[in-house]
Amino acid sequence: MDAAAIAQTYLDEVAAIVMADDWTAFTDVLCRPFTIVTNASTLTYPTPEDLRGVYVDFVAMIRTQHVTDYIRLVESVSHLDPDLISARYVTHLLSSGHRLMDPVKSSIILRREDNRWRAASIINSASNFRWLLLTPELGQDAPGAAAPLPNSSVKGPDHD
């Protein structure tokens, strides 16, 4: 399978996992540590549990906004070596065919570990604030909101 097909298959698989709210499957598609870079911050999540609040917020946003289509399309890809792929993609969130927000451009680094492709990092053009604009009731004080766990090793400007 070529790098573009690998990246597209990965993005489709993860979208289906998130839409089904399958936390266990989600934890298997990420490297440890996993890093998210936005225009506002860089966050590193050493363990899946450190990322759980972000996942819960994103799934809640999908449910609250009645997202029916979570589409991520590969735009370009580079197969850096046999076990490392860099891809640029665009995300579309739709509700019954209606666009919920402007497309979001992102980049992802996929690494093959134990014969499975996993995301090592994502660079996202949408800050956490932009995602929360879709779901204003979510925030640091909301139940399940993305906040650092007690004694968490999450690194970033909001989690020091």
Give the overall silhouette: globular
* Portion of residues within helices: 25-40%
Number of helices: 4
Rg: 15 Å
- Main beta sheet: 7 strands, mixed
User: What oligomeric arrangement do these chains adopt?
Assistant: single chain
Structural class: alpha+beta
Q: What is the mean predicted local confidence, pLDDT?
A: 83
Order of helices and strands: HHEEHEEEEEH
Distance between the termini: 41 Å
Share of residues in strands: 35-45%
Strand segment count: 7
* Poorly predicted parts: 135-160
Describe the protein.
Helix content is 28%, strand content 36%. It has 160 residues and is of the alpha+beta class. Strand 1 (30-37) and strand 2 form a beta hairpin. Residues 135-160 have low confidence and may be disordered.
Based on the model shown, name its key terms.
single chain; 160 residues; alpha+beta; seven-stranded mixed sheet; 4 helices; disordered C terminus
List the helices and strands and how they pair.
Elements (H helix, E strand, L loop, with lengths): L2 H17 L3 H5 L2 E8 L4 E4 L2 H17 L4 E13 L2 E12 L2 E2 L4 E10 L2 E9 L3 H6 L27
Parallel strand pairs: 1-7
Antiparallel strand pairs: 1-2, 3-4, 4-5, 4-6, 6-7
Short description:
It contains 4 helices and 7 strands. Helix content is 28%, strand content 36%. Strands 1, 2, 3, 4, 5, 6 and 7 form a 7-stranded mixed β-sheet that branches.
